[in-house]
Backbone:
């Protein structure tokens, strides 16, 4: 068995791509639009999973991805916590949390321990960020920052 992808529904493609690609650093690897089904599927991968080489279409189908599903007809989605959360390992949790905060993203569970943080996507999907390797030394402003909302 091999992990393929996790699918989350999104309401605003542009906001979601800004969050996942521009802020978190993921890369779009493929996209499928279905006029008959009235949906768009966008597959994103972490840079580490893609590597530095150009992937052919079959290779792009085998890497672990986040599938963003945009249904063209408006729907209301609740918080999405019924499936848990997405988790990503990051090179510098403090730098990424600062970048997200500077862009207006709420840090729901700050990385007080230098190891773990939680944020929410524009569609309220809970995202866990984990420090790669050993935890960073606890540092301000993170170590004295409280939780904000649900994570």
Residues:
């Amino acid at each position: 068995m091999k992990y393929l992808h996790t699918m989350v529904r999104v309401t605003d493609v542009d906001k979601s791509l800004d969050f996942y690609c521009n802020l978190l650093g993921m890369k779009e690897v493929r996209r499928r639009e279905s006029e008959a089904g009235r949906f768009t599927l966008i597959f994103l991968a972490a840079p580490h999973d893609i590597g530095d080489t150009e992937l052919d279409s079959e290779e792009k189908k085998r890497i672990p991805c986040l599938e963003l599903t945009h249904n063209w007809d408006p729907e209301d989605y609740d918080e999405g916590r019924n499936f848990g959360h997405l988790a990503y390992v990051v090179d510098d949790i403090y730098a990424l949390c600062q970048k997200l905060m500077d862009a207006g993203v709420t840090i729901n569970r700050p990385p007080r321990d230098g190891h773990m943080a939680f944020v929410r996507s524009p569609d309220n999907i809970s995202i866990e960020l984990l420090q790669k390797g050993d935890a960073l030394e606890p540092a301000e402003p993170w170590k004295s920052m409280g939780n904000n909302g649900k994570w």
User: Anything to note?
Assistant: The domain at 78-146 is CATH 3.10.180.10 (2,3-Dihydroxybiphenyl 1,2-Dioxygenase; domain 1).
